[in-house]
């Protein structure tokens, strides 16, 4: 017995409530539908449906089996669609949302390589300073840094983001160099306004997680703005390593309080939940997983 065909017939019987309608829908004879249904119940050793006054009713076992069949058949359709896609060239429109600074530095420069590799994928790329409404804005895939809260999204980690505590030599000369977390409340600190609890910084210190209250003198949703203010001697900032890599090498910013490690942020590629992930989305994610795993880039964003 073709078990999957029998399951499909059973599901259509439940949905159409008619053996005749199922026979027409699936281009079978009514007797074939009845025989398939009887064979399925025999193999399972239980009744799934009851015909009563020309109505088709589900038994308790039938109700559970119907739910399970829907799930199994959906997985089967997804598996078949994914296998078929392997024989096709990735194609179609791909709408991508990127965080402004990280996207500009580490995603956009490698878009030409991606486009050359997949010429039939048409890109629509946005650099944004906010979390996009994936469904409402029709975004296929987005890059996000930090903890995720959206339960209706699938996330694949593609890298990790180390952060550092930095200040300019000019600021440190004027205000001194803090050595302990509690000293930060007596300093001028530059804050990310888009982070929850932005007036507190969290670190790991000697294997323990601690929170330090800080004195914020200005805040911004842009890492670029905070970096420029730090370079202008305005205060101390906690910034991603990738954003201040060059400044640290040049000495225009200095890493301080190195015993205190700001909490590491993951970098994810995210996309809407679906049993079937389009090939164009998979290709984009895999492309950047490979790019961000290169030693020359890892050293800038993490080490």
Topology, please?
Layout: H1 3-16, H2 19-25, H3 30-44, E1 49-52, E2 55-58, H4 60-85, E3 92-99, H5 100-107, H6 111-117, E4 121-128, E5 141-145, E6 153-161, E7 163-167, H7 169-175, E8 189-192, E9 200-205, E10 208-213, E11 216-220, H8 223-231, E12 236-240, H9 241-250, E13 254-255, E14 261-262, E15 265-272, H10 279-292, H11 295-301
The largest beta-sheet arranges its strands as 4-3-5-15-6
**What is the strand tally?**
15
Q: H/E order of the elements?
A: HHHEEHEHHEEEEHEEEEHEHEEEHH
Structural class: alpha/beta
Mean pLDDT: 87
What's the helix count? 11
Helix content: 40-55%
Described by the principal axes of the CA atoms, the overall outline is elongated
Which residues sit in consecutive blocks of at least 5 with pLDDT less than 50? none
For the largest beta-sheet, the strand count, sense and barrel status come to:
5 strands, mixed
**Percent in strands:** 25-35%
User: Any idea what the radius of gyration is?
Assistant: 28 Å
Spatial separation of the terminal alpha carbons: 59 Å
């Amino acid at each position: 017995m073709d078990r999957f065909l029998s399951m499909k017939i059973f599901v259509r019987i439940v949905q159409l409530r008619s053996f005749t309608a199922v026979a027409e829908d699936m281009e079978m004879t009514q007797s074939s539908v009845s025989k398939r249904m009887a064979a399925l119940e025999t193999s399972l050793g239980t009744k799934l449906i009851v015909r009563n006054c020309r109505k088709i009713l589900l038994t308790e076992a039938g109700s559970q089996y119907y739910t399970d069949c829907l799930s199994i058949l959906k997985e089967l359709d997804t598996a078949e669609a994914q296998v078929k896609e392997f024989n096709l060239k990735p194609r179609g429109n791909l709408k991508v949302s990127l965080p402004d600074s990280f996207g500009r530095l580490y995603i956009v420069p490698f878009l030409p390589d991606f486009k050359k590799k997949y010429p039939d994928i048409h890109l629509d790329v946005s650099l944004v300073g906010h979390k996009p409404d994936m469904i409402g804005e029709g975004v296929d895939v987005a890059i996000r840094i930090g903890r995720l809260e959206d339960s209706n999204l699938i996330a694949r980690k593609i890298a990790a983001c180390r952060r550092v505590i930095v200040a300019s030599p000019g600021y440190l000369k004027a205000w001194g160099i803090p050595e302990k977390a509690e000293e930060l409340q007596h300093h001028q600190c530059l804050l990310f306004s888009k982070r929850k609890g932005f007036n507190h910084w969290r670190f790991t210190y000697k294997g323990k997680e601690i929170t330090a209250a800080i004195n914020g003198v200005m805040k911004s949703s842009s890492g670029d703005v905070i970096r420029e203010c730090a370079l202008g001697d305005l205060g101390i900032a906690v910034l991603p390593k990738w954003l201040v890599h060059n400044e640290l090498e040049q000495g225009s910013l200095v890493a301080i309080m190195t015993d205190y490690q700001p909490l590491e942020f993951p970098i994810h590629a995210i996309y809407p939940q679906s049993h079937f992930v389009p090939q164009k989305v998979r290709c984009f994610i895999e492309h950047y997983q490979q790019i961000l795993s290169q030693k020359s880039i890892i050293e800038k964003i993490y080490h």
